[in-house]
Amino acid sequence: MTVEMTNGAATLGTRVAGNGTSLLLRGVKKAFADVKAVDGVDLEVARGECFGLLGPNGAGKTTTIEICEGLTTPDAGTVEVLELNWAANAKELRQRIGIQLQETQFPDKLTVEETLRLFRSFFKRGISVEESIKTAQLEEKRGARIVGLSGGQRQRLAMATALVGDPELLFLDEPTTGLDPQARRHLWDLVDELKQAGRTIILTTHYMDEAERLCDRVAIMDHGKVIALGTPNELIASIGGEDIVEFAVIEHGTGQAVDAGMLLGIQGVKSHRVDAGLHQLAVSETHTVVPRVFTALTEHGMHLSEFRTHSATLEDVFVRLTGRNLRDE
């Protein structure tokens, strides 16, 4: 447990993670008119875990998060938060969770300090306003009114308001949107500290490197369903190769297209897809596969206009699962 000071304020200290479940969803569904925003989602997040929920716009991840936060009521299914439910335990849950929304509207005329004092007053226990300001690196903006803050400063203030109640479970919805690289790295360090302290974090982000860097496990959603679940390394391994080879060709003479079967027949090529004219191969042993690709393209009269390689990343998994080929089915 976090040690509280006598005045009810605390510092962001260690919480015992235990072996319980912070979040449990079973068969959760939510529809708006004829649109199935969430279509039978099952998830389980352990205490002390940083769990990423990823997906393209319209995939259902925001609705799923809002259901977990008690902001939206599901049409069907079971939702348990910190082994409680919103119908019977709403007041207790609001004292034990922290939420940073994708976009937070603060009163323009309040200062940073006044805003944090307001949010701190909502909680029976929590950290001091002073520590909240320090955590968000807003010391120089303590007396500045909200209307005068930049987008990144407002984002950091939203993070501070989410932490001021010293939450056991923290929901972060695209927390680094609008931040400069330095501020983004600072937030990554803060999330690392929260993880090490045994807190549970549910993170949504459009930055795949962020999810790969911070999350113990991730779920990828599309069309209201979870289509992949695992650690970043497990998901990266699932695309069938250790590295990615990308290339585009100039089609000469007959206008002959690149034959997918020819590429898949090259030793070491595990899979192939095309995105806007760019061919992507998941491969093993890049140093031997690349010469074979060059040879095969030359034999078929193909000339390269682009060529590059990189280690497989979570972004490659995301694009492969939620890209044009999947959506066209």
Topology:
Elements: E1 9-10, E2 21-32, E3 35-46, E4 50-54, H1 61-68, E5 76-81, H2 86-96, E6 97-100, H3 112-120, E7 126-127, H4 129-135, H5 151-163, E8 169-173, H6 181-196, E9 200-204, H7 208-214, E10 217-222, E11 225-230, H8 232-238, E12 243-250, H9 260-264, E13 269-275, E14 278-283, H10 286-299, E15 303-311, H11 314-322, H12 324-327
Parallel strand pairs: 1-7, 4-9, 4-10, 6-8, 8-9
Antiparallel strand pairs: 2-3, 2-5, 10-11, 12-14, 12-15, 13-14
Summarize the structure in words.
This protein is of the alpha/beta class. The chain folds into 2 domains: 9-231, Rossmann fold, CATH 3.40.50; 240-311, 2-Layer Sandwich (Alpha-Beta Plaits). 33% of the residues lie in helices and 29% in strands. It contains 12 helices and 15 strands. It has helices at 61-68, 86-96, 112-120, 129-135, 151-163, 181-196, 208-214, 232-238, 260-264, 286-299, 314-322, 324-327; strands spanning 9-10, 21-32, 35-46, 50-54, 76-81, 97-100, 126-127, 169-173, 200-204, 217-222, 225-230, 243-250, 269-275, 278-283, 303-311. The strands form 4 sheets. The chain has a 6-stranded mixed beta sheet with strand order 6-8-9-4-10-11. The protein has a 4-stranded antiparallel beta sheet with strand order 13-14-12-15. Strands 3-2-5 form a 3-stranded antiparallel beta sheet, with helices on one face. Helix 3 (112-120) packs across helix 4 (129-135). It is elongated, with a radius of gyration of 23 Å. It starts with 8 loop residues before the first strand and ends with a helix. Mean pLDDT is 87; it is low at 1-8 and 324-329.
